[in-house]
Protein 1
Amino acid sequence: MRHAAQRQLPHLTGQQFVLLMEQLKHRAGIRIDSPQGVIESCVGERIRALGLATSEDYLGLFDNSISARAEWMALIDLLTVKETRFFRQGAALEAVGEYVGSWAQRCSRQADAGNGFSFWSAGCSRGQELYSIAMVVEHLLRQREPWLEWHGIGTDISFQAITDAQRGQYLESAIERIPAAYRKAFTRGEADGSWSISECIRTRTHFFHSNLLHVNDAPFSDFNIIFCQNVLIYFEHEKQLWIMDQLADRLRPGGLLVLGAGEDMGWKNKRMQRESWPGVSAYIKLEV
């Protein structure tokens, strides 16, 4: 009976729920649209982890202290880490492949490749998205321009997601979603039954904790590709438009911006031209 009672913890009153959502928006700039039951489940997980008794005890932790800021991040981790998988956005990755191939054809040793090829997965979760893009890029560039260097970065609001991504180690069931040729070339089995991303990918990919709310302060730019899918939904519409403008600023001329379906509603940027890849919201940054 005691265990069942613990499972039923916590219950957030209407006022507690509203205040928690307002504080999440204030602290992280994001909007959580999960049902109250899902949010209560995440709060309950934190209550049990901290050995507390009630929701009131938990919410009482949130003052202006350093420990309170750390607890906000722990709760945000639970609320925002989404289920993801390798090669999840098939059409978008095909568009990336076409773009890389076209870019490589235009590239020469004396031309625009002096800075190499770079890409950013914004909202990378546990790394599968960035690693998927990296496999496509490595495969195509090694075929056409084996001398060319590339690098990719992934960012996410979740510290736990970034930690998992940096580890680059996954269950066999996750690795099975990678196309066979890429799986053979870019993963290796470990003694414990897990699978790791190969060194040729991991040494060129890096992960950082970052919130798109503060993208204007991000210390990186000059990308060939920015991949930002299913992240902007967490922000208010005006903030979404601002973030997309900021991402466009960080593209090289001729660079590719890939967004989630419908995330570009109402967005107009005179430097960006919408592309016609079926099922993909993609834009090219104009050269001028």
Protein 2
Amino acid sequence: MTEQVNNQLTRTEYAEYKGVSKPMVSKWARDNRLVLTPDEKFVLVAESDARIRLTASLNNSFNEKVGAEEKEKVNKIIEEKGLTELTWDVKSTQLDLETDDAEVLFRNARALREKAAALQAAAEHERFVGALVEKEQVEKLIFERGRQFRDGVMACSRRIAPDVIGKESIQEIEALIQKELRSMLEQFARLPIIE
């Protein structure tokens, strides 16, 4: 923080003292939230701090009201435009981030946040739509795989029977069954994808 001298700081020093950008101090000056010396070259620190504290809640309630109105406008635009048109509008929007005007930067920051949210929502929508599968397709797939598994188990017993005949050791029988079941499951896992 900058040292205060006679309770007066330049606007740049005041921005550093408050931990805000110089454009924000300029905005406070335009909004009459700063108390300046008669020649308007210096900020009176104690008086300006007090005025900013007093007007903070007023500014917040104003921002809340404006925010609610803006949200209502955005919702109306979303209802009027389809997702494709809205996504194109958002992607084509270019913002000026080189300006020193705090209000323009604030609006641009809000627009960037809304643009990022809209692009994220569009990406999630596309991913969601791409991930959806019709119920009939799922039922068909489950039926086909279930039938193939049943057929494999039935064929497995026919293949094992001749090898098991004449075996008296339980370990030998278990080894034969395990070998056949493992082979059947590996073949089942390699089945082609059903479209």
Protein 3
Amino acid sequence: MTFRGTYTALITPFREDRIDTAAFKALIDRQVAAGITGIVPVGTTGESPTVDTDEHIEIIRLAVEYAAGRCQVVAGTGANATKEAIELTQAAEKVGATGTLQVCPYYNKPSQEGLYRHFKTVAENTGLPVMLYSVPGRSGIEIGVETTARLAADCKNIVSIKEAGGSVERVNQLFQAVPADFSILSGDDPLTLPFMACGAVGLVSVASNLLPEVLVKLVQTCLDGDFPAALAQQKKWYPLFRGLMSLDVNPVPIKTAVALQGHCSEELRLPLAPLTEAAKTQLASLLKEFGLL
């Protein structure tokens, strides 16, 4: 399986501190109807640090059940402990996930050799295709270009990277270093067009929780090579993409935005806190400006 197209890093709806299964199913149905390539449950946007192991696996199981083969399900099963990442990944494989997203280990800040051994060990213990996830703003370190190339060469099921380092230059470097069949995906909505102009072939999106049709169209326009049309779309929607990432830490603004549309509760789990009233008013104004409320 290849990773190419538009993927939604799904929010996890809660109600009274439980997974809101009805809202979750409706969110997935909405994504599928919009033509999304795949969904990514239990990533950062899905509040993975705040769910316990049983909940983590249950969210993946529900995602597989509700997607019902209509799109890929790339389960967020990375961890800062290799053993835990293996256990979560094997559980995801058992319940039917079609791929796994492996975040760069956080807090313990391993060396590049440590990263190589970590991801290689995870890959050796699953049959799922693996999408690496480099996000130095959260992890404190990045997966080096040489490390990525080494993993792509040595592990047949490490086939992609979600690049969220905010650097077009790094995308250029990755594109030079990895095999032609290894896919680079943007991990930042505002940088979709420049990343794809430099060789990325898709996006793992936060904003597509709110407007999946828009992101599907933008990515496909880039894949079609119509960059003037893509630039017009980027210009139109960029203020919204930027606003969703600047009002507070992800996923607070996106979950609040989806809740304002009536698709789920605003409920978050500590240590995440709700938007301030001032920020919520600003978000509502932004959504109204784009005809989303």
